[in-house]
Amino acid sequence: MGEINVYGIYIPILLVQAIIVYVLFKLMSPLIDRLVMRGWIVLPNIFNLCLYLGLLLCMHWLCLYLQGTSL
User: Fold this and answer.
1) Which tens digits make up the pLDDT trace of 9-36?
2) What is the pLDDT of residue 49?
């Protein structure tokens, strides 16, 4: 993947993806909290971790796909 050079500071692409996914995760949190309160999610901490990692995987796959099609 590589990195982004911002005024001489190299920022890893995965860090940028992780920040974007964290914002998406925080936007989804109210919906997840409702499901926890209704009892649909038994172990919310493990669910939140798995959801974040799944979103990060999808974001990384999307970036790789878009990078591959632009060549």
Assistant:
1) 999 999 999 999 999 999 999 999 999 9
2) 97
Enclosing H/E stretch for 56: helix 44-69
Size of the chain, expressed as the number of residues it contains: 71
Nearest partner of 60 among 6, 19, 5, judged by Cα: 19
Angle at 35 between CA 55 and CA 60, to 5 degrees: 0
Query: What DSSP element (H or E) covers 62?
Result: helix 44-69
Task: List the chain domain ranges.
Answer: 3-69
Q: Rounded to a whole number, what is the largest CA-CA distance in the chain?
A: 49
* pTM summary value: 0.84
Strand partners, 19: none
* CA neighbor of 60 nearest in space, from 12, 27, 28, 5: 12
